[in-house]
């Protein structure tokens, strides 16, 4: 138990160091912009249930820059989306859930091999505790309906969407490193402008 705690602390410290890296900050900024755009393409089935793939950039930020960077991408995504493209009144609970989603993706994927089991478990934590738990609570407070009235519809939507989400995440995390990595699996060196 103590070693698990030490590993999480080391991940958070490594993620903190990533925030001082200009390349990682640029990547996080691109993930943030992409998540804002994808969030605007969400499909609302009801006022409290939507289909979205805006979580994919959170996962990329968590995979490359760690939990703290992904937490910031998640929080800023919700804030920017709420103020630039409001769908309703701003509610800070959704910002908290969005930030925690990034944190969970960072803890699940940073410096780890993206196996199907890891992706499935990480996405399950997000869906069960954050989307079905916290977001249903926020929706019940915001809309005024009971938590237990909103939960069945949200659970059904999550159950149907979960396998698709896992597949998309797994393919994304397997495909992107191959594009980013050079021959032999080593990271490509930065381009030297004097040797073009």
Give the termini separation: 51 Å
Structural class assignment? mainly alpha
* Biggest sheet: strand arrangement: 1-2
- What is the 3D shape? globular
Give average pLDDT, whole number: 84
User: Which series of helices and strands comes N to C?
Assistant: HHEEHHHHH
Helix content: over 70%
The CATH architecture assignment turns out to be: Orthogonal Bundle
Individual helix count: 7
Question: What is the alpha-carbon Rg in Å?
Answer: 18 Å
Q: Could you describe the largest sheet, including whether it forms a barrel?
A: 2 strands, antiparallel
Question: How would you sum up this structure, described in words?
Answer:
The chain is mostly helical and 196 residues long. The chain has a single domain, classed as Arp2/3 complex 21 kDa subunit ARPC3, CATH 1.10.1760. The chain is 74% helix and 4% strand. It contains 7 helices and 2 strands. Strands 1-2 form a two-stranded antiparallel ribbon. Helix 3 packs antiparallel against helix 4, helix 3 packs across helix 7 and helix 4 packs antiparallel against helix 5. The longest helix is centred in the C-terminal third of the chain and has 34 residues. It is globular. The N and C termini lie far apart (51 Å). The C terminus is likely disordered.
Topology:
Blueprint: H1 2-18, H2 22-40, E1 43-46, E2 49-51, H3 55-65, H4 67-84, H5 92-109, H6 116-143, H7 147-180
Antiparallel strand pairs: 1-2
Helix pairs in contact: 2-3, 2-4, 3-4, 3-5, 3-7, 4-5, 5-6, 6-7
């Amino acid at each position: 138990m103590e070693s698990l705690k030490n590993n999480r602390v080391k991940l958070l410290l490594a993620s903190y160091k990533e925030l001082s890296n200009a390349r990682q900050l640029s990547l996080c900024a691109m993930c943030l912009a992409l998540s804002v755009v994808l969030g605007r393409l969400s499909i609302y089935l009801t006022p409290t249930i939507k289909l979205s793939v805006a979580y994919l950039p959170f996962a990329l930020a968590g995979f490359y820059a760690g939990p703290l960077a992904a937490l910031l991408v998640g929080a800023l995504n919700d804030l920017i989306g709420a103020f630039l493209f409001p769908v309703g009144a701003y509610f800070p609970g959704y910002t908290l859930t969005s930030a925690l989603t990034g944190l969970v993706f960072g803890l699940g994927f940073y410096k780890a091999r993206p196996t199907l089991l890891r992706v499935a478990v990480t996405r399950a934590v997000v869906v069960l505790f954050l989307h079905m738990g916290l977001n249903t609570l926020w929706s019940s407070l915001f809309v005024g309906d009971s938590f237990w009235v909103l939960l069945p519809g949200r659970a059904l939507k999550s159950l149907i969407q979960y396998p698709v989400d896992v597949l998309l995440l797994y393919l994304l995390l397997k495909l992107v490193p191959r594009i980013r990595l050079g021959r032999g699996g080593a990271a490509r060196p930065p381009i030297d402008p004097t040797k073009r």
